[in-house]
Amino acid sequence: MAQMGRPRSFDRDAAVDQALHLFWQQGYESTSLSQLKAAIGGGISAPSFYAAFGSKEALFQECAERYLSTYAQVTQCLWDTTLAPKQAVERALRQSARMQCERGHPKGCMVTLAVMSAPTPELASVTAPLTRSRAHTRAGIRACVERGIAAGEFGADADAASLTCVFDSFLQGLSPLARDGVSLKVMDAAISRLMCVWSAPAA
Questions:
Q1: pLDDT (tens digit, 9 = 90+) per residue, 80-136?
Q2: What is the pLDDT of residue 59?
């Protein structure tokens, strides 16, 4: 009798990449076990899938961590205090837009798209790492805005919370634009206009 189990061609690292792309494209709830098995390929059986990854949720968590340690690093410059605060925010926006429009992976940002990836309260724990990542990025934007306010780069009545919301909402809005086929050229031009918000007040 032929031995059942993990196919010889199984490459776990490549399998996680394939699963990452599927979850990124479709979200957690809309991705089925059969779709994951097909994406991984090699004729992997259900028992082999569970032996390798534990569960669909565990695989999603692993994919999320891989995304956060790779693609999501485009906004880490927000925490680089060697950069001027305006430069840090602009770099984060441009790098994120470029990543979201790249070929070779799904369009948009998995962190942002996770808002609808597992939308029910019962599944909130599944996307918790991505929720924390959004909060981390928002905090980075706020830190830059506060540095800008302290340096006199905004008017005297500048409000850190509302300014943070301006830049954060623009960043989160890039994902549906990328999914709808808006070009990087257009996004870059929009970022240039957005950054006009951040300019030193007239003396």
A1: 999 999 999 999 999 999 999 999 999 999 999 998 887 778 888 999 999 999 999
A2: 97
The residue assigned the tokens 């991505």 is: 130
The pTM score is 0.90
Torsion of Cα atoms, 109 then 128 then 63 then 96, to 10°: 20
d(CA 59, CA 13): 12
